[in-house]
Here is the input.
Amino acid sequence: MPDDFRMIGIELRAAKDGYSVVTEKKGIPRYRSLRDEPGYVEKFSGISSIYHPNEIAADYLANLAVLDGFVDQSRIPKEQMAKVDEIFNPIRSWARSTFGAADQN
Here is the structure.
C-alpha cells in the first residue's frame, strides 16, 4: 500500500490571515517529497512507516512493545541501546502517561 502513496509537503507562506499555498506557473502548488525533507525524516528516525500519522504511531508502539516486552536488552551493546533509548524514551513516557502503564524497570 505505501507504494501507492505520494508523500509530499506543500510549500506554504505566511499570509495576513494565516498561510497560503505557494504556487508555480498555472497555479500548480509547489511541493517536494517528504523523504527529501531532512527534518521530517529525522523526526521519525527508527521507524520506516512514515507515510501516515496512524502508521507512524503504530510503528512506534509496536516496536516499543517488542523492545520492552520481548527483547533481552542486556544483550544489546550499551552504545546501541543509548541510541535506541534516545528514539524511544519519549514514546515510552507518552505511553506510560497515556495508558497508565507502570514502570517495569
Notes: The first strand starts at residue 8 and ends at 10. The chain has a mean pLDDT of 90. Residues 16 and 22 are 14 Å apart (CA to CA). The two ends are 38 Å apart (CA to CA).
